[in-house]
Amino acid sequence: MAAANYLPSEDQFLCSVCLDVFTDPVSTPCAHNFCKKCINDYWNTNDQNTCPMCKKVFTSRPELHVNTLVSEMVSHVRQSAQQKASSSSEQQESKPGEVPFDVCTGTKLKALKSCLVCLVSYCETHLEPHLTASGLKRHQLIEPVENLEGRMCPKHDKPLKLFCKTDQTCVCMLCTVLDHKMHNVVPLKEGYEGKKVELEKTEAEIQKMIQKRRLKIQEVKHIVELSEEDADREKAEGVQFFTDLKESVERKLNKLINTIEEKRITTKKQAEDSIKELEQEISELKKRSTEVEKLSLSEDHLHLLQSFQLKHPPPTKDWTKVSVPPASYEGTVRRAVSQLEETLSEKMKKLFEVQMKFAVEVTLDPDTAHPCLILSYDRKQVHDSDLWKNLPNNPEICSTSVSVLAKQSFSSGRFYFEVQVKGKTDWTLGVTRELSKRKGQLTSSPQKGYWTICLINGNEYEANDDPEVVLSLKSGPQKVGVFVDYEEGLVSFYDVEAAALIYSFTGCCFKKKRFPFFSPCLNDNGTNSVPLIITPVRVN
Question: What is d(CA 247, CA 287) in angstroms, rounded to the nearest whole number?
């Protein structure tokens, strides 16, 4: 009974040629069993009829018959294996993304290992011979992988066991004595470890790049947040400014209308009063005229003589000295506009004071100074010496314009600085973009990357716009303030002492860094020797 229930394990019925459970098992004269097809194929590919197991040579190919007993036992083993596979946990069945067992028929079970010698992936059941059979234990097993054929040398059909550092490719043993004879070849493990180190370095670099970009995202988001805050604040200030201005204009307009209306009403009343008085006198005169006419028709001598003295004209006003002057409205509108200008000037002064709060520290950069310029020790003053200094050929130096840039640059936000120009007959001030042309013929204009204003010959002020704009100023500024709003694309110039706007460049397209620009212009034999001076900003 026990013998009837005994069922050998599956590995006892594996063909030593195909390493699978027997199919149509046959026995050789030396009592070894093989699949019928496997042994016939083996003998067809060899010159001698030998046993694959014991290497016994047969003089002629033995006649083979299916071994019924072994065949029945194999059938029982297959049924047992199928039951075992069907009763095993679901995790043994291959899932999407997992490597299936190459030999399994029907439901593909999950492969546990891949053999680099057999080039086959095995499930738990079929892997056992590689773990127990002495000949199969020497095979190299790895974690299950797909495309095992890709691990064979396509040229020599040998396992790729080496790595050529020279050509950075995997090679077989035959490759090392043929195509890669003089190359630096190492075992796959050494090549793998080297590449793994490189991958770790690459991964570290990638993580650094990711971190930098995350920081950049934070920086950009912070800039956007600041921009939103600035926009909200600017809109609020703008609404408040123009609301106040609108209310002021409306008050001035109402006052103007009321003043004119009062004058009109006064003049009209004076005229009406004079007309009424004149009409009363005319009525009295008409009455007296009627009496005089009636008396002149009388033929009673005594009555006419007695009544004559009473018929003189009644007393009246001397209207030759009386006049109703016309209302004078001249200058009323002009005075109202002047008052409005004062209001607007006051509000512009407040706006200017707000912009002054964006004051920045600015110093001159000697590396950009023209060879004729002399800079003060504190890098706050510059003037022309009329003497050319031999300097290195620095691409930052402006060799044609007698100018110098600030050490500081700005690529966002707002900034403001002030420059004293008192006593100079010529100067140019403003900002320039990074890498603007500084050699050869220099044209100062926004198209060339310069936003500047200048004084020429002591009395001509110009804005170097496209085209140039002649500036009409009530008086020459002693100190010039320069305000830049990078995001708004605005460059404004102010007379600091008068708190008055001189000129604004609007709609500027800023993409690169912006540098404050200073040109004291030529010394002109001492007439323009006074330096440009960067002065501290004093906010009230």
Answer: 59
Query: DSSP assignment of 460-481, as one string?
Result: EEEE--SS-EEE--SS--SEEE
Residue whose pair of structure tokens reads 């042994």 in the numeric block: 39
Report yes or no: 452 and 429 within 8 Å, Cβ to Cβ.
Answer: yes
Q: Is the pLDDT of residue 206 over 70?
A: yes
Statement: residue 405 has pLDDT above 90: yes
User: What tens digit of pLDDT does each residue of 290-299 get?
Assistant: 888 887 887 8
Torsion of CA 17, 23, 26, 31, to 10 degrees: 50
Q: Under a CB-based contact definition with an 8 Å cutoff, are residues 533 and 420 in contact? A: yes
Class in CATH terms, 1-87: alpha beta
List Cα–Cα distances, 77 to 92, 107, 125, in angstroms: 19, 18, 12
Q: What is the pLDDT at residue 89?
A: 41
Rg for the chain, CA atoms, rounded: 55
| Domains of the chain, residue spans | 1-87, 225-321, 366-535
Residues 6+ away with beta carbon under 8 Å from 494: 352, 355, 477, 480, 481, 482, 483, 500, 501, 502
Identify the helix (H) or strand (E) that includes residue 129.
helix 124-132
What does pTM read for this prediction? 0.46
**Which tokens hold the place of 353?**
């004071």
Domain 366-535 has CATH 3.30.160.100: no
Write the burial class of residue 449 (CB in 10 Å: 0-12 exposed, 13-18 middle, 19+ buried). Answer: buried
Summarised one tens digit per residue, pLDDT across range 291-336 is: 888 878 878 878 777 776 656 677 777 777 777 666 666 666 777 7
Q: pLDDT by residue (tens digit) across 113-128?
A: 888 777 778 887 777 7
